[in-house]
């Protein structure tokens, strides 16, 4: 720690100044506006059904959830369900509890009135029919959802593949047929006792009457308990083959603006294939996508916390999912917005306005220059570039610089580095290098020449031939089997993680095994022949009709795009071409949005959907309009990646300061400021080399090769490993670790590698020490240009020159300064 | 032991080579040259060889010169080239002498090691030639030497970045290399707007290890284009200049390999380049019209739509004399590289001559049937072209998605060979053909798949000269009278198409025939790790030449090989490629007093195809770089077949047996004579090699000092009939040093063939089935009754006499002859062991049956194992 000891004071000053700009710890959000809620002008009752029509409860098992909303003068709505008093006009028809849950008591019709404390009221007609008819219980529709709701069939309990304590249920009830077998037939039927249903092991265990590892799950005499008991008493019917099944579920309300610390009752309706509707509010399972922002209780009550922003609550029922989205405004006046430069600004600012979150100011030129150079070209600006840019008076200089960067090889290097990793351009052994070099070169050149993204994807996914002639076939070397091809394609190019659906229905999405294997069919004819070099293969379409077998049904599935219709691909045609045709169709809902979201994350550190490759109904975009507009723009541009980068970087939103205002520090998803982040491993190493005037040699690559230019993971480098360079083992960008750890700090502060760079005789410090032409101030200024792309402040110059003045060994003094500069957060972060 | 860590280029691999006695471990196809390259001078003192030294040449510089000039050439990489003082070129117009220089204290100028002065006569046609070096360790394998008619330059280092780029006048060729690992070379040239500049970088074609990559930049450092693996694995750039000015070309190995074997020849010009001629084949005879497709063709006209990688092509119709020289059938006359898969072609090279000189050479193949040109559109069955076989349809996979098809009628039983030639024209194509039968029924046209044809996966040539290709070939026999359809496409047609992707689809009559290639193989386990090797015959010893038959159209017959043009004192008996087999070795022997020589020899194979006697001269070949284990080597046809006589063999194993005919079920005891020379006194291990199937082999060890032995073989009852040549493979640790004073000798494992044996196997008249009691255990002084069943066959019905025969070295075991009458099928031999009978296990004691067959006395054997005990 010789540098540390010597320049502690110096470092302290250097670090404090710039760090203010990159605070990353949340401070308190402003007080909520709950206390000043607007006056209500009316009250309404909803149930998710057609407004104005009576609610019909069919049979004794039916339930109905009422949602009472108060409407303010400005049209905003607030949930009053738990606050009103309910009255029933004709007694004995339905019972209603304070949470608004209707339970039928007898056939008939009545009116339920909800009255708010202010006296405002609303009414709803409720009809009960067929109360006495003990309708046969349908096992899949009525019993299985109870297991899901109570968590019996969760992955941690009986739902895991091996079951729990000898009893297994299908995961989340996706296979009711199997559940029926397990419950009714397995273990010689000992779980059921139709003669005395309440003595069935199923009920005794779940109520913990006999000891149950899972504890007390089911209330005796609850609605669910009675339903199960009745089902057992009926002799455990499965249901008839033509019984209706759930076609979809609907969450009401779908979207609401909520205050912080507010609550909202939800109602969920299941729509059956026969057109009937059932209220399943109490049977569905709720999950929020951000527990920091809101909770969702078992009865369908969403409670927001102290943060503002967007939150989603997923409701899951019988393999179907529905979403409630809440927007929780901060509620501040948003004025003095920068003039929008393009649609990104319009949509982000509109969102910020609706949330009442004021954005930070637009960053200064120096900050912009460094930020955009890192983000587009993966490098720091040179001292000359900084000098010229800061001196340039052209109001269009930012746009011009973006163009310069886009045309530069740095753009291709940096984005090839990004793509090569998620395209898994990995060197498993020395023989692989020929292929990994070829694939990297192909990726880089594709980006350099701005190959349209749909063509880029096509050339990879439908790659055929031999490595030298068609390098993207290397993708198939690393992504070996059909499952990997399916999953990587979905995750990488469609932003969908459909891995789950390989073995069971996707728990958070509508994807079933049928969907998975329909997608897998596209890859079913991929064959290999030995290639020209060892460990290489020729990839080709093996003539034949593409199909895959759904292991659940044992039936063949023809190629089917996700959520699309089955295709007929003749035996002579490569179905992978049909796959890309489907993907690149402008109407495809996934392809463009996945990549614009991925690129958005590249520039903003957070996708509009986050994580960027887990896009699903239940993980909604923080700004759906923005995502849609970006996708549209991208498609209309002809899948032009440079245009996408250009549009993003030209926006005011991208150019906002990372310095939070008083009110947007807690904003993590609405892009009211630039979210600072550590330079990636490769960029950081190159940056250190640039500032220290040194280079890192990578074995097998020519001198001067920069870390972002590495073609694969073949060059072992401790620095890159410690700072989280990915190995190209998965299609997930999450493989790149941006975490901070002690090893990183120690390496920067005190490693032989960094010390060597600082003290090299050919390095920056040595050169500056030798340079007697220039004043020390000028040299210090150059260092600030190099490290931070900005002019140093007077105090910074003063501290540095003072340190130089008191040091006998000038070279060592410059080493100290360089060391201090590269150990600041201002250097380590892009901000 | 020192460990050499060598970075290999790595089209192949980063390989760490550790060498320790007694063998060099060969991990990579390029390990030996790498080793030799880096340690050319120093290594010989320390490396323990796997075989006696034999000259090998890996790198020369420069690899070419202009016609009518004299240059200095350096041998930059090789092995066992100490004292090499001659270069041999495959064209008599190229000559060389070793460079000499004045050395202090010496009167006469002294030779400079590895340096030669090469003169190229003005009339040597531009093209590629072979050069070999020779000296005390024989004549080396060849390397390519190019003769051009352009301005020739040598690379000047440093040229490692843009600022150091060296100027190349347009129309020049630079001989250069990526020196040492990570060398990157820059060149600049000046061009004017509108000029179509073609940049070539020959490397693979020059036997170079460079995986060449070209990048073109403008003066502002903007990348304009890049290329690799464009033409025959080498890069090629075509750029039309937009603005007058300077441009920069960067050349590097794709994986940044470098060294003396990473040579290349960079050409920057606006001279003509021919991409291909169409049709790509022709029947021999008179002058015919061809269309030349290329760039910068004087008088050429641009073609709409015909573009490769975005560059338009021009075309020009020319008339070319298609030679009708029968020698062409044997010798593939070529000016460029012929890879193993191409080596089966017949044809000739043609070059477009313009006032700017010759364009690059292209191959025009000898058609296998009348040529029919593809007529587009022919992508759907309704459009398929109707042809009348035998014919050769010539076409192109010219655009993405292109599918071509033909229909033809054939009568039941008609046989055609369906063969596609496309990759074998040096293209990266991968043809796929579907053969279908079309029948008309009342439901309409019914189509039945008969065959899907993809790569021809022959193992012919092994790893040393693997002739397999991606071109399909199959025999077709019409199952019924009717209509047949062949759909042909590039296997990757949905991702690419290219007018250069020409093909020939032959639907030809069956015409059994063969072609031959011959090349020396590294003597130790060539089947696993082929290496460049050479034909070095030591005096009083033997050497082998591996000969491979590429059989065509179900030709299965035996091929008898003979060698011609042998130098004095050298003999080479005929060798037979057995019916149905594809390879054998010719064994050359030299007398002890044969004079030193380097000779171009010829090998001819003769066979009967139908009633015709045909003779085919073997095409010489060479391994240029080793392959990794179980990976085919890099090989090509050579331009001549050179044999050297030099040095003295440490031993000779003679299989002292005249040509012999034996029936099936017969023992063969080969008397062996071992002659040792010099201070070699050690044992020699022997085992039969290239033996016929079903001939039981025996491995023996001829002990030190012992000079005679017997190798026992047994021709089993089901051994295939026919003529065979084989030899005993000898292996012995021989003390050896290169040092003139004989010091520091170390053992070298010398593997060589014995003199060959010729054996003809005839049908056996019977098979003996003895029932030996007690597993053959017999006490001295005791007797044993052995019932022997005589199973007569092959129309033999006569009487038989049974007795016992002993192999040399066993005595005291006898049996009285027993007659088995014609009508009987069993006899019983009484075997008696004398009191002094040789003790021990005797696996080669045999029961013999003698009979008169077709008026001749014939005997068959059945070995029985006896164990004579006290």
Structure overview:
The complex is a heterodimer of chains A (831) and B (870). Chain A has 831 residues and is an alpha+beta fold. In chain A, strands 2-10-9-6 form a four-stranded mixed sheet, with no helix packed on it. Chain A has a four-stranded mixed sheet with strand order 12-20-19-16. In chain A, strands 1-4-5 form a three-stranded antiparallel sheet, with no helix packed on it. In chain B, the strands form 16 sheets. Chain B has a six-stranded mixed sheet with strand order 43-45-41-39-49-50, with no helix packed on it. In chain B, a hairpin with a 2-residue loop joins strand 25 (301-308) and strand 26. Helices cover 2% and strands 53% of the residues of chain B. Chain B has 870 residues and is mostly beta strands. The model of chain B is unreliable at 1-49 (pLDDT under 50). The radius of gyration of chain B is 32 Å and the shape is flat.
Quick rundown:
The complex is a heterodimer of chains A (831) and B (870). Chain A is α+β, with helices and mostly antiparallel strands.
Keywords, separated by commas or semicolons:
heterodimer, A: 831 residues, alpha+beta, four-stranded mixed β-sheet, 30 helices, 15% strand, B: 870 residues, mainly beta, six-stranded mixed β-sheet, 3 helices, flat, disordered N terminus
> Quaternary state, please?
heterodimer
How many runs of DSSP E, i.e. beta strands of chain B?
70
- Quote the average pLDDT of chain A: 90
Helix content of chain B: under 10%
Largest sheet of chain B, described in full?
Answer: 6 strands, mixed
